[in-house]
Every structure is written in C-alpha cells, then in structure tokens.
Design brief:
The structure is a homodimer. Chain A has six helices and 26 strands. By secondary structure, chain A is α+β, with helices and mostly antiparallel strands. In chain A, helix 1 (7-17) runs antiparallel to helix 2 (71-79). Strand 9 (102-106) of chain A pairs antiparallel with strand 21 (301-308) of chain B.
Chain lengths: 367, 367
C-alpha cells in the first residue's frame, strides 16, 4: 500500500476512529487502527468488539493495500504535524509515515488479526437532524447504568410510534425520556436497545459539519451513518422495562423553579450529604411559597437552604439523592422546570416548563 | 464570636487560605481553617506545618472570638452562595453560617489544637513587582526536585548581588536561573532556600489585584506579604550547589530556533521515546542548517523529525530527555531561543534570544 493524503483529512478520520479503538490488554490488535485502501479512498477502522467505526477520506492511491497501527500513538503523532502532505506506505507489517519534515515508522500487527466489523446491508430506516439527536442523547444517556448486572439498563432504548421517535434510559433509580418528531415514519417498526457508551461516542464524533444521521437496524446490530463515517454497534438483548407505568400522571405538588436556582441548592446540599449517600430532604411549602433542602453530614456539619419559588398544591416532603437532581438539571437547557412531588415513596417528575418532549424521573430514597 | 462579612471578601480570603490547609490524616485540625477576630477585622489562617497563610478581611465584629472549620468544605460552600451578607457565629466549637437563604453549621475542632503559625517580626527586606515575581517563579520552580532525598534541590534558591535578585532551582538533571532588577538593594544580604511548593502556592494566590510583594527573612522562616494576605514558610536548611560552574561559558554549536517549532519537535519525539526514558538524539547540521531529532520506541516505532534553523558553529550531537526540553520551552514567552550544544557530555544551554535575565540548562543523557 502506498497513498498520499492531506493532513486535515487524516486528522479528522483519526479523531473519529482512534478513540474508539479498544484495550490492548484484551487483544493487542484492538488498540490498532486498520488503514486500508477502498477504491480511490482510504478507509480507517477501529473496534472494541462491542462497537466499531469506519471513516473514509480522499486519497491518491499509488498502490492498494492495508496495514494496522497503534491508534492512540498515530493520532497523537498526526495531531502534532504541521506538514499538509502526508505519504503512508506499508513496509512489512509496519506503517511508514513520511512528510517533508518527518520520517516515521509505526510498528503494526498483521491485518489478518484485525477483527471484522459487521457490515450492515439494510438501507436506512430513518434520518435524524444531527443537533437534535445529539441533544437527545445527552439528555437521556446520562442516567444509563454503568453496572452490567442488568444489561438493558446500560442502554438507550430507541423506539418509534409513527413519526415520533423515543429515546429512554433508566438505571432503576431514575429515568429520562426524550421524544423527537421525524420528518417521516421510519421504514419498519424501530425498537432497539443500544449501549449508552455507543450513543455517547456518537455524540463525541459528530462535529458541527454533520447535519443529518442515518440509522439502520439489522438483526443484532445497529448502524449510524454520518457524512464520511459510520458507527456500528451491537444491540443489547432483552426487554426494556415497561417504564411508562412509572411516569406519574398526576402529582400532589408542583414547584416551578429556575434550573440554575435549583442546581445551586442541590450542589450546596450535596456538599453536606456526601457521607450520607447524597440524601437530601426536600420540602415544598405552599404557604411560604418556598422550597427547602436539608442535608446532614454527621461528621462535618449540616445545612438548610431555601429558595422563593411558585408552589402549586399541598405541602410536600420527599428525600432524594442530590447528585441525581444535579445530573438531571445539567441536561436541561430551559430556564425553568416544573418539579412535581407525590408523597414520600412515589417518583418525582422534572419537566422543562417550555417543552413537552422531555421528562426526567427520580425515585425517592427511604427517609 | 459573632461577625458579619461580605460574600466577596470571604470568598477571596478562602481562595488564599483553604487550599493551603494540610492533610487531615496527619493531624485532623490541619484540614481546618482558623477564623478569628483581629480588632475590627476577621483573620483567616491555615497551615500544613511547612507553610502557613493569613488573610484579613473587613468585618462587622459583634463579639470577638475564634473557631476552626473544615477548609475545603467551607470554601466549597461559600463559593456556591449568592447571598451577599453572611453572619458567622461560634456555637460550642462549631461555626454557624447564616444568610437570608441558608442556615448551616460546620463542625469545628477546638481552637487550642490549631498549630501556631510563626510570626515574622522582621521588617521587609525587599519589595518586588508581583507580575515579575510570578513569572520568575513559573520559570524556575518547574525544575525543582520532587524527591526529598536532597532537600535543597526541592527548593528555590533566592539570593541577591546588589540590586539584582536571583532565583535558581535545579534537580541535578537541569537548572533554571532567573534574575530580577530590584528598585533598590535589599536590607541585608538575601540568601535563602524556600520550598518550591511554597513559591508555587504564592503564584497561585496572587491575583491581578496584587501589585507588589514584600519579602522578609527571619532565622529559619521567610515571609511574603501581599495586599491583605501573607504566606509564611520554613526555609530549607543546607548549602545550595555552586551552580554557576555548571553554566557553559562557551559552546561548540548554537542553534537559533523558534520556541513553538522546537516544542513541536520535542513533543513528537516524546511520543516515540516513552519506552526509552524520553531519550531523543539531537543533531545540529551546519551544512544543511537543520536541527534533527531522532527517537525510538522499540515496541511501537521510531521517528526522525527535522526543522530548518540557523546553526552557528560545528556539527553537533547530544542526547536529551524530550520532556525536559518541553518543560524548559513551556516557561519561555519569547518567540525564539538560542540552544547551545557543547559535545555529548556537557550541559546544553537554552536562552531566549531577546532577554539576558534567564537561562535553562539540561544535562545530556548517556547515549
């Protein structure tokens, strides 16, 4: 293989594929990027066996071929280059990188050892605006579980009802649901659980030049295609919980509060609840039109903070994890939310006041 | 004790003293800040036994007294407040903090357990412009040793010759010397070794409002006074190495090179020398007017990078640690340096082309 490429193209391709490379301790070749000619383009690929990425860039292909090279080192090296014209050449199993100022060899691993990334032959089921999908993932994936004990809870459940696409995650302590209106109904019913890590990598690699994303589904795989790249991921097997029955349909008390104001109270409460599993007592006072947060760190001290808010309904109390409040609010870009309480053992509901397409539920702690 | 203070004053005082608080595992009270009334002001103090800080703020003192409270928690709490008026009160050994929206108690430790911070009675020996001193510390302290085996190498040696003040550090592999011209000669001869950590804390706490710093020396202590605060530190006992004999007086080869250009080469070389103790071979070629850096990471690959530069003198070779080059260049805000080589076993010298008040020496590695 011998090809000539532009620095800016190679940098972009590596920014997509290099960080998705896997852990060398599992299988050394997983830490490598596969570089191969594909007709008159160069294809860069990586995989950690759960998900993989492909990215194509324009190249002058002098002779076709393929090579693997350490992804992290190659990306760090290319990111520090200033010469615009780069020649890539294979010598034995190694990658030679030559520019006017640099002569470099990166030791490779035989191409045959690189695991194949599944090819998705299905045509796109749907197309989504990239900024909308990024925002939806950021709002939902944050609550996915990091625990592999119940795999479905570590994923984002994506399904449609007609032209409405839903993204949902829950770790059983909290839940976030976002809906998007598609330009048209998808081809076929969509109902997949995608690892939250895949969705978060997708957010990371989508820069502002990407306008739309195609999604295709095939048996156990799912594909996201964007511009010159694609991410392919396994689906998570299993049945997502019947979460809709958890969403409170009515509540005893609804508090209208500024997102920044509530985030500030939750952060302060969090300082005093670190030795107490983040536990903070929340009280809504209709008469005083105030929300009060109390927390106790028996070792270091205690805190009561309050804010003037709009309280509708009865006086209420509930105990929540302050970190869950902070994380929920961090995903909301509206100015105000409605925070609904329905007794000490029922889930609390957070909704932006100015949008109907998002909700976040937090389960109470026993108090 | 009962006092009223302004949020902005308390925030500023805690930014100086809270991070200098020590490690609770050594002695619990070291993690606390001492808060005490001092006539009509409030004094905040902390110490880690090596250095201590005092900071005074205006206060309405209702009743005098003192209390200690966890420094980190108090600072995190105060930094998140938005109420401008704060009341501090002592209840038993605890600190009560009250604002219109917050009622908070921080558990204290008896004031008697707080170690005394040495008082420096000596008058100021010298006054320095704060931006100049900050820059000097940043240029020098980076090479101080983190190893306590030879304590003098973990310090910054500060001494004067007439109106010239020198700051010097060395870890025996490299050395940095900066000189400052004082407005007048200091009172008495200055010759102290101050822990580099103290100097770096001083840089951290000096915000842009501080214009000048007074330095006073007393037996085993040294004091830096700035605005409403002061840092007091022990001196390091011992004799600083006679470093001047290490500074090359003439060299075989001098390379004029851009700081960014050299930093870029060193960074790339560093990628390929991580498994080789950072070792990079540097070659200056007079005929080609080029500087060439070669490095080999036997596991992952190898790199040769070169740059067009101005080479005066003979062709030369030397092997250096790429990290030391990067760190030296990171302290220089000039555009260009002269990089001097005098054979394979003599120290290399780095000097900005536009300033005579700074030099940096790097010892070669055996190659």
């Amino acid at each position: 293989m011998k090809v000539n490429v532009k620095l800016s193209n190679l940098t972009k391709a590596l920014s997509v594929v290099s960080r998705m490379a896997g852990n060398a301790s599992a299988l050394p070749v997983l830490a490598n990027v596969l570089i191969s000619t594909d007709k008159n383009r160069l294809k860069l690929s990586s995989t950690n066996l759960e998900m993989g990425a492909n990215y194509w860039i324009g190249a002058k292909v002098v002779s076709p071929g393929a090579v693997t090279a350490p992804g992290r080192l190659l990306a760090d090296f290319i990111n520090n280059l200033q010469d615009e014209n780069i020649e890539l050449e294979v010598e034995k199993a190694n990658l030679k990188v030559t520019t006017p100022h640099h002569h470099t060899t990166l030791n490779g691993i035989e191409v045959e050892e690189f695991p194949s990334i599944p090819e998705i032959k299905a045509s796109a089921a749907l197309t989504i605006e990239a900024p909308e999908l990024k925002k939806a993932i950021n709002q939902v994936a944050v609550v996915a579980s990091h625990d592999d004990a119940r795999p479905v809870l570590s994923g984002v459940y994506i399904y449609n009802e007609g032209k409405t696409l839903y993204l949902v995650s829950t770790d059983s302590y909290r839940l976030a649901e976002k809906s998007l209106i598609l330009p048209g109904a998808p081809k076929g019913k969509i109902s997949v659980i995608v690892p939250a890590r895949t969705m978060q990598e997708l957010v990371r690699v989508l820069d502002e030049s990407v306008e739309t994303i195609e999604m295709a589904v095939e048996e156990s795989q799912v594909l996201f295609r964007f511009g010159d790249g694609e991410i392919i991921s396994r689906q998570i097997d299993g049945q997502f919980p019947n979460y809709r029955e958890l969403i409170p349909q009515k509540s005893n008390t609804t508090v209208e509060i500024g997102v920044d104001q509530f985030a500030n109270l939750a952060k302060i409460a969090g300082l005093f609840s670190q030795t107490n599993a983040g536990s903070v007592l929340i009280e809504a006072d209709n008469g005083a039109q105030k929300l009060k947060l109390s927390s106790v760190a028996s070792q270091v001290g205690q805190n009561v903070s309050e804010a003037e808010v709009k309280v509708d309904g009865a006086d209420s109390q509930v105990t929540l994890n302050s970190r869950y409040i902070s994380e929920a609010l961090s995903t909301i870009d509206s100015d105000k939310i409605n925070f609904s309480i329905t007794g000490k053992i029922n889930p609390c509901l957070i909704k932006p006041t100015d949008a109907k397409d998002f909700l976040h539920i937090i389960m109470p702690l026993r108090s």
